[in-house]
Amino acid sequence: MVSAGKIVRYGPNRYSFSDFEAVNKVIYSLGNSCQKSSWYSTWASPGQWSLFSDQSVQRHANNRRLYQATYAMSALVNYEPLVDTCSDLLALRFEEMMKANCPIDLGHWFQCYAFDVIGMITYGKRLGFLDSGHDIGGVIAALENHLGYATLVGIYSGLHKRLFRLMNYWAGAKGAGRAYVLQFTRERIREAQTKPQPILAETQVVAENFLAKFLAKHAASPDTFTAYHILAGCTSNMVAGSDTTAISLSAVLYCLLRNPATMAKLQDEIDSCTARGELSKIPSFKETQQMPYLQAVIKEALRMHPATGLPLERVVPEGGVEILDTFFPEGSIVGVNTWVVHRDRRIFGQDADVFEPGRWLTEDTEILSRMNRHWIPFGLGSRTCIGRHVSVLEMSKLLPRILRDFEFSLDETLKSREWITRNLWFVKPMNFKVNIQTRTAPRGKMNAHDVN
Fold this sequence. Notes:
Elements: E1 7-11, E2 14-17, H1 20-28, H2 57-71, H3 73-76, H4 80-100, E3 104-105, H5 106-123, H6 129-132, H7 139-153, H8 160-171, H9 177-194, H10 210-220, H11 227-241, H12 243-258, H13 260-275, H14 285-288, H15 292-304, E4 314-315, E5 321-323, E6 326-328, E7 333-336, H16 338-342, H17 345-348, H18 365-373, H19 388-405, E8 406-410, H20 412-415, E9 420-424, E10 426-430, E11 433-438, H21 448-451
Parallel strand pairs: 2-7
Antiparallel strand pairs: 1-2, 3-11, 4-7, 5-6, 8-11, 9-10
Helix pairs in contact: 4-5, 4-19, 5-11, 5-12, 7-9, 9-11, 10-11, 12-15, 12-19
């Protein structure tokens, strides 16, 4: 990576910084939370808000509190059986595709997996992506359209209201991009309500899906948790819940396939845990949290390839701020790019550009604390991704299972070059082709019948 200085001007009145600590204490820290830039406004329909796009610091804080308990890890572990159902189906698809002896786009299948998990935990039913790998209802295409629109139009956000209407007019009844996803979500909500269940108190809804919990919140406080809160919560799951997890899972597999020794070490940990009875056939989340190398691999892959690839823009408040001995007046747009922060050699060492999970297993608490402060794949401060625990749950449970049961190898097209990615906010791999085989025995070991 080529150094470009500590401050880079990448557009009119827009500045990106390489020194995270200098920016964090005046822009992102909870006590100095600044509003997001107008670039984020295009991620919601004109005149509406979402947790991700809301520029109002106070409204975002109020609404986040309404959703917070639903997304807590303590609540999400109740969804493990739903994740397992989708993991079963993905493993079955892998077994079927092996017979064809052709490379598959692993990134696409990870997105199918993530979409069906989101469907299960949001609506109580799979959306059907894992049945055949097809784009159900065209929602993947609509999301891709939304990513392109929001990323590019956000630069000229004043055009959003007019362009949004034009795009949806041209697209027809179901709309385009975000409008299409909103309509898709409304249809799923209507489907769930065609067979209405008794609306329980929120405290009684333990392992129920998000929609059931949102309906309970609405029934208890319809003026506080409105019908729009239900739609916004479900839509946010759809928009953010598939791409981020699919990209992160792809990043882990890609980094491992580029580093066979690391893959071997992780599979050894998986095999050892299995042999000791510490990892079930269907891994539990609790079991995976006792696998230090697995967690280090996940953390390092998300450091090397965080899902988002554009600056986390904030607006300088009234009175201006001083960052790195430079004054930035009110209205300036400032921020850091996660990719830059994650490759800072002052923090992660001279090998910051190298995939090395072992760095997270250091016994030096000062170094570890410093790295953790600079590890921000899910955002930071009050704007940290509210759904991050869903993604962590999915990755922690799926990865040891498929790496124990299958052998993956890069397709010939990827052995001699880096993969190709596209950055439309999400840094998504394109055509991540791999070959799959059954892993018949632990690495370097034989089954009992092989001895006889």
